């Protein structure tokens, strides 16, 4: 083996590690507000609002102008490129509003999926071209972390070894480039919930995917202490007829993570996928109560699960600003509680009543 | 990806996990008494004793006749094949004596190193042929764990990618076969301390090797909760002119492990390599005081570092047996304390003064 050529200096490592820890400190999580123009179109269409730049700006303004106490539950916000350069109605840049609240600003860096020929409709992710220069510019513009979403699916012959390897490799390249530019990379290898597979199968696939991701990160000399992981929770497919409790989801999820994610990773911020707001919170809470060793923070990086009620309350009308903000703040707070295992759902007696439903982990 | 084919049932997993936890229970470690006939020749010649089967039996008797004081600090003993079938002077099998003390019996199963053609003197380890049948027999004969040692070395061009890959692969095959037979595999990827490389280089190599080992274990469907790891501590090469403190060794070691060893692994039992008895204890103690979060037990699997004084006190004389046994018990107790970070050293000021010598881990 050739002598090592350190990828980062001690100062660079310190900066990255401090940013990562700041994002997930004390039960804080991430607001994923990085919906692309197309995806925002889907969201706005459901509340009968036109997908214009101004409407997108207005909605984000309502979210970002909540009271400063939001920084107790939100440690970071992921922005889409357009939003990074938008301002509120007083002309103040969104990113400065967030930073002044003590929230770390992040940016979506990938450029969407591209097909992998010869596979059963599997994909990889584009966005590596010129990525270093883009990262350098974003860093100058106040961004301290990046996000890149790789997508794998469970189906006949899927995910294939090629899809797993290729997506892991692209994630590792992206992570390496981010760190060279002072950005903490959020590594997101999403195994989507489409399909009728059961919980055990999702766990098996998630373990294979994560093992490959961490091998790739190691091969690419990525500094794990300066990264965050954004995985799916381990759940059954949407079309699976069997139902599972939050405790079963939690045990399967934490088991998969503790077999694959090194302790050096400071935080794991789950995506919510298609989960309802309440399920996303209940599952996160159960995860934090799971009696297995959990050396990383277990928190959230939610899009829909933080914004669904807020969007519905807004309906595109400025008069609904207060209701919109209340809905958002409420979800932020309960998820922060869940990230500490302290969420008590409405109608249940205590946290203890949820504890006893854990099945011993050796069955997983 | 095809559906998973579970390698182990829930009962098999529980048995393996329980055995592993028993071995590395708090304050306990392993006595590596599995020296081959050839290795014993070296040890015995150093004290002027002939290398006969009877002398080897008498020597192991010295160790195994230790009283109940060892129950709290020895969780497992690794045997060599010959010793597994030997008895003490009263005709009691050694296996039974050890088991009666509540200590788990282990067996060395590898068959030594063989060269890797086309490399710079690198090796792999043999022993896979008929391993399943051998494990089944050892399990009947009282063994509940096994050990397999792979060897890597640091030089200008080593360890090579082939050596890392090949050794990781045989370790994974061995581990898989052990588990099929109810035996907990101790996975030992030793990186020798030979050479003049510094601490950083050893850390870099150790991280690469361990990442490859855990990827291989995952690929081979090995149940991590039912394994133990026996790595080298991260140290400079023997010929390195720079001296490092136990705290520096500890920080480099724990950092490397945190970046590569999943939390599911219940325990890390360090080999002592060429370290003196006291050095091995001081380093283990510093490792257990390291201020980084450590989700696995960090303990010892020492050969020479538990036996050097005992061997010297014995010198092949029956009259010295009791004194020799005392020497062994003493080292066992000291290492039991070190495995909890409670060893105050032989008269020096351990505790708080040493704590401040830890350099922040982003320097590693």
From TrEMBL, chain A:
SUPFAM superfamilies: Aldolase. GO terms for biological process: glycolytic process. GO terms for cellular component: centriolar satellite. It is an enzyme of class 4 (lyase). One of its GO terms (molecular function) is fructose-bisphosphate aldolase activity. Homotetramer. Interacts with BBS1, BBS2, BBS4 and BBS7. Forms a ternary complex with G6PD and TP53; this interaction is direct. This is Fructose-bisphosphate aldolase. The gene is ALDOB.
Automatic annotation (TrEMBL), chain B:
GO terms for cellular component: centriolar satellite. CDD domains: FBP_aldolase_I_a. The keyword rRNA-binding does not apply. It is found in: Cytoplasm, Cytoskeleton, Microtubule organizing center, Centrosome, Centriolar satellite. Pathway: Carbohydrate metabolism; fructose metabolism; Carbohydrate biosynthesis; gluconeogenesis; Carbohydrate degradation; glycolysis; D-glyceraldehyde 3-phosphate and glycerone phosphate from D-glucose: step 4/4. It catalyses: beta-D-fructose 1,6-bisphosphate = D-glyceraldehyde 3-phosphate + dihydroxyacetone phosphate; beta-D-fructose 1-phosphate = D-glyceraldehyde + dihydroxyacetone phosphate. Gene3D superfamilies: Aldolase class I. Keywords: Glycolysis, Lyase, Schiff base. GO terms for biological process: glycolytic process. Its main location: cytoplasm. The keyword Nucleotide-binding does not apply. GO terms for molecular function: fructose-bisphosphate aldolase activity. Its EC number is 4.1.2.13. Homotetramer. Interacts with BBS1, BBS2, BBS4 and BBS7. Forms a ternary complex with G6PD and TP53; this interaction is direct. Belongs to the class I fructose-bisphosphate aldolase family. Catalyzes the aldol cleavage of fructose 1,6-biphosphate to form two triosephosphates dihydroxyacetone phosphate and D-glyceraldehyde 3-phosphate in glycolysis as well as the reverse stereospecific aldol addition reaction in gluconeogenesis. In fructolysis, metabolizes fructose 1-phosphate derived from the phosphorylation of dietary fructose by fructokinase into dihydroxyacetone phosphate and D-glyceraldehyde. This is Fructose-bisphosphate aldolase. It comes from Phyllostomus discolor (pale spear-nosed bat). The lineage of its organism: Eukaryota, Metazoa, Chordata, Craniata, Vertebrata.
């Amino acid at each position: 083996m050739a002598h090592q050529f350190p990828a980062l200096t001690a100062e660079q490592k310190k900066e990255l590690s401090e940013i990562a820890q700041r994002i997930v400190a004390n039960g804080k999580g991430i607001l994923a507000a990085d919906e692309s123009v197309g995806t925002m179109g889907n969201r706005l269409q459901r509340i009968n609002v036109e997908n214009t730049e101004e409407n997108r700006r207005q909605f984000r303004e309502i979210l970002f102008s909540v009271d400063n106490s939001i920084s107790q539950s939100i440690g970071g916000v992921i922005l889409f490129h357009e939003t990074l350069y938008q301002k509120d109605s007083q002309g103040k840049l969104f990113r400065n509003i967030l930073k002044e609240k003590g929230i770390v600003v992040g940016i979506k860096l990938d450029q969407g999926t591209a097909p992998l020929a010869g596979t059963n409709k599997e994909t990889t992710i584009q966005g590596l071209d010129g990525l270093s220069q883009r990262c350098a510019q974003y860093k100058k513009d106040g961004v301290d972390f990046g996000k890149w979403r790789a997508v794998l699916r469970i189906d006949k012959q899927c995910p294939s070894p090629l899809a797993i390897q290729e997506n892991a490799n692209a994630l590792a390249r992206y992570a390496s480039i981010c760190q060279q530019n002072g950005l903490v990379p959020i590594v997101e290898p999403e195994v989507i919930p489409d399909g009728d597979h059961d919980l055990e199968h999702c766990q098996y696939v998630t373990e294979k995917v994560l093992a490959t991701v961490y091998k790739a990160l190691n091969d690419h000399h990525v500094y794990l202490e300066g990264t965050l992981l954004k995985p799916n929770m381990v759940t059954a497919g949407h079309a699976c007829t069997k139902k599972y409790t939050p405790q079963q989801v939690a045990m399967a999820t934490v088991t998969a993570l503790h077999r694959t994610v090194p302790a050096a990773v400071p935080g794991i911020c789950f995506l919510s996928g298609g989960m309802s707001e309440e399920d996303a919170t209940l599952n996160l809470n159960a995860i934090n109560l799971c009696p297995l060793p959990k050396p990383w923070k277990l928190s959230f990086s939610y899009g829909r699960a933080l914004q669904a009620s807020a969007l519905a309350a807004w309906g595109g009308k400025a008069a609904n600003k207060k209701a919109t903000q209340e809905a958002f703040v409420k979800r932020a707070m309960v998820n922060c509680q869940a990230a500490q295992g302290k969420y008590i759902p409405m109608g249940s007696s205590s946290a203890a009543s949820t504890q006893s439903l854990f099945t011993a982990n050796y069955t997983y | 990806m095809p559906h998973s084919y579970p390698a182990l049932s829930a009962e098999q997993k529980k048995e393996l996990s329980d055995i592993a936890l028993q071995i590395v229970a708090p304050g306990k470690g392993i006595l590596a008494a599995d020296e081959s006939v050839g290795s014993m020749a070296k040890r015995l010649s150093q004290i002027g004793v002939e290398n006969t089967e009877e002398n080897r039996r008498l020597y192991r008797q010295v160790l195994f006749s230790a009283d109940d004081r060892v129950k709290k600090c020895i969780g497992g003993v690794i045997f060599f094949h010959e010793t597994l079938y030997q008895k003490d002077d009263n005709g009691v099998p050694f296996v039974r004596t050890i088991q009666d003390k509540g200590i788990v019996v282990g067996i060395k199963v590898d068959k030594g190193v063989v060269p890797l053609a086309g490399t710079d003197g690198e090796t792999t380890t043999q022993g896979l042929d008929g391993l399943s049948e051998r494990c089944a027999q050892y399990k009947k004969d009282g063994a509940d764990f096994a050990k397999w040692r792979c060897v890597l070395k640091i030089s200008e061009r080593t360890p090579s990618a082939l050596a890392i890959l090949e050794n990781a692969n045989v370790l994974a095959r061995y581990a898989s076969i052990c588990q099929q037979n109810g035996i907990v595999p101790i996975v030992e990827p030793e990186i020798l301390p030979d050479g003049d490389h510094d601490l950083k280089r050893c850390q870099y190599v150790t991280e690469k090797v361990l990442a490859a080992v855990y990827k291989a274990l995952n690929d081979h469907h090995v149940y991590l909760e039912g394994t133990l790891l026996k790595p080298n501590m991260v140290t400079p090469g023997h010929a390195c002119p720079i001296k490092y403190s136990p705290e520096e060794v500890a920080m480099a070691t724990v950092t490397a492990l945190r970046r590569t060893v999943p939390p599911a692994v219940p325990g890390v039992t360090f080999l002592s390599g060429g370290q003196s008895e006291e050095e091995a204890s001081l380093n283990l103690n510093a490792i257990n005081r390291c201020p980084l979060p450590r989700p696995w037990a960090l303990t010892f699997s020492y050969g020479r570092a538990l036996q050097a004084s005992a061997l010297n006190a014995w010198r092949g004389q029956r009259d010295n047996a009791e004194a020799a046994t005392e020497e062994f018990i003493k080292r066992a107790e000291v290492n039991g304390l070190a495995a909890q970070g409670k060893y105050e050293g032989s008269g020096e000021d351990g505790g708080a003064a040493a704590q401040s010598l830890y350099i922040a881990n982003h320097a590693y």
